[in-house]
Amino acid sequence: MLDVQDIFRNIYHYCVGPGMTNLQPVVRLRVIDAWWNGGYGCQPGYYGPA
């Protein structure tokens, strides 16, 4: 599970699988940062705003 931040400092939750994932199609504004938040066992996909 990642926390993804856009240019307006809004934070979104996004679960990703192994490998590379393009976050830009889901988070409509430019992504400026992403970090692991410790989530475990999630299904890959967008989980919405934090």
Task: Describe how the helices and strands are arranged.
Layout: E1 2-6, E2 11-15, E3 31-36, E4 45-49
Antiparallel strand pairs: 1-2, 1-3, 2-4
Largest sheet: 4 strands, antiparallel
Q: Averaged pLDDT, please?
A: 87
Fraction in beta strands: 35-45%
N/C terminus separation = 12 Å
Instruction: Round the Cα radius of gyration to an integer and report it.
Output: 10 Å
Spatial arrangement of strands, main beta sheet? 3-1-2-4
Could you characterize what this model shows?
By secondary structure, this protein is mainly beta. The chain contains no helices and 4 strands. Strands 3-1-2-4 form a 4-stranded antiparallel β-sheet, with no helix packed on it. β1 (2-6) and β2 form a beta hairpin. The termini are close together.
Q: Outline of this structure?
A:
The protein is built from no helices and four strands. It has 50 residues and is mainly beta.
